[in-house]
Amino acid sequence: MSTSEYKPKSFWQRPEGITGIIFLAILGIGGGILLANALPALIALAQNTVYLTLMLIALAAIVYVIVDPKMRALIGYGYKSLMRWITGLFVKLDPIAILKAYVADLQDNLRNMNKQMNKLRGQMHILKEMMYKNEKQIKENLELASQAKSMDKQAAMVIKTRRAGRLKESNMRLDELYKKMEVLYRVLKRMYENSEVLMEDIKDQVMIKEQERKAIHASTSAMRSAMNVLSGNKDKRAMFDEALEAVADDVSKKVGEMERFMEVTSNFMDSIDLQKGVFEEEGLDMLEKWEKETFSSLLGEEKKTLLDKAKDDNEVLDLNEPIKVPERQSNQYDSFFE
After folding, report:
1. Burial of 25 from C-beta contacts in 10 A (0-12 / 13-18 / 19+)
2. pTM, whole model, 2 decimals?
């Protein structure tokens, strides 16, 4: 996604916009109360020609500010800058600092995801072993049932046949559980691989863009930015920060999806009873809900491929295959600054 495809947030959608709305509300309420209290005095002053003239001049100035696009732009720029400064006292607005925080989050998530994969892989191995033992016992019980039949031992034949049937039903449940776990493992593995690339891309962008941002901010003063606004030119500093915010928003979505799927995995794993080969509906519902969601910011089109592979019996999952980090052809966020 390039900046041309990215729809930037309006001022009112940003944290400083919320501050601006609150400030305007307070200003409006306060101004209304003040005007109501001052109205009798204003009416009295209006009876004096000199004061009336001054009030009309003040009103004309206000109308001019409202009507003139350049003055509106200048006041708007000043107001936005003030709200951003006030908001920055309480909320982290620096996109570079936000991206650095996401790098730390990704590092923690990757560690936790690796633990989840190891735990999941271990349980899948146990499940495979259980199904293998069941298959072995099914075969043995069917052979014993066949022998009992040939020896006309009806009761023994029924017992062995029923035992084989129960084991077969158990294996069907275990196989269903294994397929769900396979979905989790395939997705976790791919998310882990993609997240490692994502983290390196962010690190590179932070290292490069932090210096560029300092240079742009140093060369573009607030006064020059205001003059650019007045002349209708694009503010280079604002455009650069907008691109960084686009990167931060994209990373936010991917980190959020990563953490959400880890929660889905954790809930599903906690709901499993391996001995009985059952799982609670809540864990399954969360997984199925995720599967039905069409868009994945972290996996892209790969999501459907991974789900299809997990459902295809011909696609055998190798649990011992090491994690592969995809080759980085280019930084996925370079296009944001074009």
Report:
1. exposed
2. 0.68
